[in-house]
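> example.struct
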């Protein structure tokens, strides 16, 4: 009897399932294979128009979502702008190579591939964004030449929500690789970012005014910051990142401009810095124009391999005018926890906590730090504390200097 009841229930359930499944509207995406829509993978025909038109068709599609597919092959692409809002979600699958113009003057915009005002954008694939930066790097002399050419970043996102990138490679950007401005709820996983260690300003991932960002399983090696976190960015979770070569994971620089916003709620965990100039870095301008707060940061389970300055809080950052080497930073740094940070430091000063005299760092917690000096100078690692209030526990190499 129980058996019959059971069988009947199972039958009912499966009937119900079939009914539900068959009445649901199809949500298979409409596929736009770029080759079938006029793109030519010969590495020299400019596909910018073809891509822009495909984007427009995909973006205005109402009856289903869209999937733009870039198959294997080399698609030369001048500057493109992919602008929303779109009617539906869009997948952008890149298995081929998108090749940027080698001459920087052939990209007539700030960003080579730029997404704006889009929600639910899912970029993935095994393909490559080849920024062809080599010809541009020697032209990057804006610090001494006011007539310097403007170099484009590889891929930009502005006013983009609920989106993600999974799996692609970005190679040899002219300036930064990926730039995010006013982006909320965005995930980055399995991405590879590569440029030579001597390529100027080739930041890996750069964020401003953004929130709820997850970065994981990503390998970044460039000539500048692996990740740069700027004004107004909150709620970032960075894990399983390999950074190097490069300048580490940097918050800032902050304080230079007057309308800057607080930076808070950052976690960096299970990450390796290998051969970088800095590891964990916060930099604020010595003579600052804005009074903001940097707070609630956790760095944990972090390995440093031959890192120049593994832990470097620098509130005396003053690279060039308009910074003046006088006065104190007005950026308040507080609630910072560093736990289980270990490995090797090329500088003797493995822990540098150089805070502002006007706004001393508050509530800095060091737990289990083990950073050995392995540079050319003799002697073991040291710590520097200026205007910092906090406490330490567990293993402590170098000996801490918190008051
Ligand atoms: C994106 O998210 C932010 C923060 O949640 C919100 O203020 C903004 O209106 C959203 N933008 C769009 C286009 O949905
Ligand atoms: C991003 O990842 C988080 C945590 O895994 C998840 O909850 C969220 O839904 C993801 N968002 C997107 C847009 O993929
Ligand atoms: C660190 O970088 C060096 C030099 O590129 C490399 O040989 C080594 O395998 C890397 N170590 C780790 C743990 O990634």
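> example.seq
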């Amino acid at each position: 009897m129980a058996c019959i009841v059971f069988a009947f229930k199972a039958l009912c359930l499966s009937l119900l399932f079939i009914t539900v499944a068959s009445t649901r509207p199809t949500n298979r995406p409409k596929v736009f294979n770029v080759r079938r829509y006029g793109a030519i993978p010969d590495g020299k025909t400019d596909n910018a128009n073809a891509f822009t038109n495909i984007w427009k068709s995909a973006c205005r599609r109402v009856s289903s979502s869209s999937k733009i597919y870039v198959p294997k092959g080399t698609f030369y692409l001048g500057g493109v702008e992919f602008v929303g809002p779109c009617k539906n979600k869009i997948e952008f699958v890149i298995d081929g190579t998108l090749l940027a113009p080698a001459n920087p003057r052939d990209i007539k915009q700030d960003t080579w591939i730029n997404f704006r005002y889009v929600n639910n954008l899912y970029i993935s694939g095994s393909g490559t964004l080849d920024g062809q930066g080599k010809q541009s790097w020697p032209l990057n002399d804006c610090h001494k030449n006011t007539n310097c050419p403007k170099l484009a970043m590889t891929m930009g996102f502005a006013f983009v929500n609920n989106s993600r990138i999974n799996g692609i490679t970005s190679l040899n950007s002219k300036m930064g690789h990926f730039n995010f401005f006013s982006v909320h709820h965005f995930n980055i996983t399995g991405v590879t970012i590569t440029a030579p260690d001597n390529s100027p300003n080739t930041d890996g991932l750069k964020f401003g005014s953004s929130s709820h960002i997850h970065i994981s399983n990503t390998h970044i090696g460039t000539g500048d910051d692996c990740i740069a976190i700027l004004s107004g960015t909150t709620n970032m979770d960075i894990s399983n990142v390999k950074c190097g070569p490069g300048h580490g994971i940097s918050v800032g620089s902050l304080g230079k401009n007057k309308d800057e916003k607080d930076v808070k709620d950052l976690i960096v965990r299970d990450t390796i810095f290998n051969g970088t100039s800095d590891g964990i870095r916060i930099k604020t301008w010595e003579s600052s124009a804005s009074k903001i707060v940097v707070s609630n940061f956790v760095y944990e389970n972090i390995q440093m391999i031959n890192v120049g300055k593994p832990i470097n809080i620098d509130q005396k950052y003053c690279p060039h005018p308009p910074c003046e080497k006088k006065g104190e930073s007005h950026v308040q740094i507080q609630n910072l926890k560093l736990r289980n940070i270990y490995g090797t430091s090329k500088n003797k000063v493995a822990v540098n906590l150089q805070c502002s005299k006007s706004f001393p760092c508050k509530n800095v917690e060091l737990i289990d730090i083990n950073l050995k000096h392995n540079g050319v100078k003799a002697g073991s690692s040291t710590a520097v504390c200026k205007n910092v209030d906090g406490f330490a526990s567990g293993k402590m190499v170098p000996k801490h200097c918190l008051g």
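> remarks
The chain has one domain: 29-135+152-316+326-397.
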